[in-house]
Design goal:
The protein has 202 residues and is an alpha+beta fold. The strands form three sheets. Strands 2-1-6 form a three-stranded antiparallel sheet. A three-stranded mixed sheet has the order 3-4-5. Strands 7-8 form a two-stranded antiparallel sheet. Helix 4 links the parallel strand 3 and strand 4. The chain is elongated, with a radius of gyration of 23 Å.
Length: 202
């Protein structure tokens, strides 16, 4: 399933680069040519190595992909767009969050707010916890350029988008574009530590 990119309500599919497979015919021709140039002893070792690699490849293909639903944090905490900056700051500090999905009155995702956004627009929140600017609405400062994914999105695609676009978290949406989970950098690290093998991350 693709990564979804939305800007001001306009939704597009984020391009996912396909992995170009090797041609079995070309691989076979290259292997045969290499074997003919090797001494018999080297050919036997090469054949054993190829058999091992083929077994490893089949084992890898049999493994299921790691998906967003395997790593996402649930339930996801959201705030409506008419909430204030101080309300968002209170939720983030109490729950140790760095990102909050922002929803419409119908519960659909309309934006994201990060801890950095709040500090940039109301720096006094860090010291006093409230300011005059903290009464502003989240709709005024939220980022409407939102990347999101579905529960069946390959986690490698999510990691690539987060790295390329420099985002710290991706909300996971249902068919009505309502947040049902979130994948953050911390979730990716936890998945890397707990979900073997590491080949899933290459």
């Amino acid at each position: 399933m693709p990564i979804i990119h939305a800007v001001n309500g306009i939704v597009e599919a984020y391009p996912v680069r396909p992995v170009a497979p090797h041609s079995p015919l070309v691989d076979a021709v290259e292997r045969e040519g290499a074997q003919e140039r090797r001494p018999p002893k080297d050919r036997a070792m090469l054949a054993a190595q190829q058999a091992y690699e083929e077994h490893t490849k089949q084992t890898r293909l049999a493994r299921p992909a790691l998906l967003a639903r395997d790593l996402m944090t649930v339930p996801v905490v959201t705030l409506p767009s008419d909430s204030t900056l101080v309300e968002a700051w209170t939720v983030m500090t109490r729950r140790s969050f760095r990102h909050l999905p922002i929803t419409s009155v119908h519960g659909a995702l309309v934006g994201m707010v990060s801890e950095r956004d709040l500090i940039r627009h109301a720096p006094e929140l860090v010291t006093t916890g409230t300011t005059q600017s903290a009464s502003r609405k989240l709709a005024e400062i939220m980022s409407s350029r939102v990347f999101s994914a579905t529960p069946t999105t390959d986690i490698r695609d999510i990691a690539r988008v987060m790295m390329e676009e420099r985002v710290g978290a991706l909300p996971i949406l249902d068919q009505e574009r309502r947040p049902i989970g979130i994948v953050s950098k911390q979730d990716l690290l936890r998945g890397l530590a707990t979900h073997a093998p590491l080949e899933l991350w290459t």
